[in-house]
Each structure stands twice: as structure tokens, then as C-alpha cells.
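Open question from group meeting: does this chain pack into something compact, or does most of it stay loose? Before anyone orders reagents, we agreed to write out a predicted structure and look at it together. Recording both the input and the output here so the notebook holds the full record.
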Amino acid sequence: MNILVTGSNGFVGSQLMWELEKLNHNVIGIDISPHCNSKPHPETVVGDIRSFEDLDKVNNIFQTKYNNSLELIIHCAAAKHDFGISREEYFSHNQYGTQRLLEFAEKTDIHKLIYLSTVSVFGHPQGRADEETPYNPDNPYGESKLGGELLCIEWQKKNPQNELIVLRPTVIYGPHNFANIYKLINTLHRTPLVTVGKGNYVKSTVSLNTMIDMIIFSLGLLKPGYQHFNCVDEPYISLNELMHIIASNPGFYMPKIIIPDWLAIFIGKLFDIPAKLFSIDLPINSDRMKKLSTATDFCAQKIRQAGFIQRKSTEESISEMCNWYLDYKNYKEN
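C-alpha cells returned:
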């Protein structure tokens, strides 16, 4: 298949480009940033999906190289960091960027789309949430990704022959990712002293291995209409269980002292003051403490009922990331 990947220098997009190529797909990517934390794919073009000029450039490069037209867009690009991004910027990239991409798809007669959304469109529902949980985003990231998701659904309805799959991953982790799980792994390195709460609530995660496999599996599910799937690793484990899996790897340890959730949030508020005054991203703040003490309990039975089989266990994927972390720390220190 002839595939355009947006966000192709990103954590998911960069790995996805290589995997699609291994499966003999023709790929080209577009990314607003020239930087890639892992191995950049040579078919990535630096450009902005909000610019028709940049999208047309990518399309022309692809047609010149392959003498063929693009058939599918896998839309991974998004503004998603938890610090330093304004509400306006979230919506500019995640909603308006998606709108421009859909207009480009209509102009170039592309009828297949896989949109990477997020479970943040559900907010923090009580109890376990599945694909039919009502939308209820509670932060600008989730609101803007929902905006993009709804635009995709409208695009599909315009033409019943359009093929749309929405994938909603929870926290994605793996080598070369420096987000939530990296911070937890970093905390459990070299005998940590303190942890927050008992951690007996579910923290949904999905490894890069599983996420890539789910995207590739979705290629075989494409058909006229709209389908949507959550993306979560099984089994669904608690934060405490996740910490024990990390600590089972050499060089990582469980904390010795447990402090109550309320106290951690209070301490986080104290760090909010200098962070706001000096516009810096401190490792401790009230929002991170709240997230750490809040369950994120999502299930992904629907994609498994469609035939998806998880290839790697959580233990295997965490071990892979722990080994990468140690190599990365050693490289940085030397």
C-alpha cells in the first residue's frame, strides 16, 4: 500500500515507518520537527500538516519516486507534551492540523485514514472504561484530540466509501521515549527513597511494540465505514505491580517510604510556584502528583475480539526499556 505517515520523526511514527517498509509498503512521512530521538527514516520530509504547500510537496515527492498515488494516511502527528504548550497550540496542531489533513485527503482522492487519538478523550471515568464510554475530556490535550477525532468522523460520513479507523492509545512507552514511564523508571533507579500512595489502582499502559502491532493489524481491518479501538496492554495492572516489574530488573528498586497522596499533591503545589514564576518544567508539580495518584483504567477487548494477539508481555517490554535506559544513562554520563 502507498502510505503517508504524519509525525514520522515522533516516537511512534519513526518506528512505524521502518516496520511498514519491512512489510513492503511504500512510505513517506511528514514531521514539523527535523529531530528524531530514535532512528529517523530517510523518507521523512520536514513540513507542517497545517500547510497545503508542505502536504502537496510530500505528495509530489511520493508520486515522482513511486509513479503512484497515496492511498492511506496514518495520522500520528500531535502536540502532546504536558508542559509549555498553550491551549491554542493544542487546538492548532491537533484539531486544525487534522482539518487541513482531511481537506488534503479530499483534494488528492485519499479514502483511507487511521487516526491516532487518545483515551484522554474519555477524561478520567469512574471504573473500567471501554470504547463505548462517553466522551468527557478534562484537559486541553484530550479536548483538542477529540476535536480532531470528530472531524475524522465527519469526513467519513461525507462519503460512505471512506475508510476510517480511530485508535485510542493510553500511555505509550518504550526505548527513546522520555514521558511518564521513563520518569517512573528513572525514579526507581539507584534505590529510591519515597513513593506516593499505595499504588493499588490500575495504570493503563501500552508498549511501543503493541502499539505498532495494533496499527499494522488495523491495516487489515480497513473497510468502508468508521471503526474505533482502544489500545492497551494486557493484563491490566496496578501502579504497584508496574513498579515491581521495573524493580525486578537489575539496577532498579522499590521505594522504602510511602507518603500519602494528599501530602504529595500539597508538596507539588509548593513546586508550582517557582515553575510558574520562571516558566520551567520541574519534575515535581501538583498536576503530576494528581496523575500519579489517579487510576487510568481502560480496556481494549474490542481489537482483541477482532483477532489481535499481543506479541510481547508487559514484562518483556518493560525489561527492554529498562535495558535501554541503563545504556542511555551510561552514554550520557560518559
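Observations to bring back to the group:
The longest strand covers residues 163-169.
The mean pLDDT is 92.
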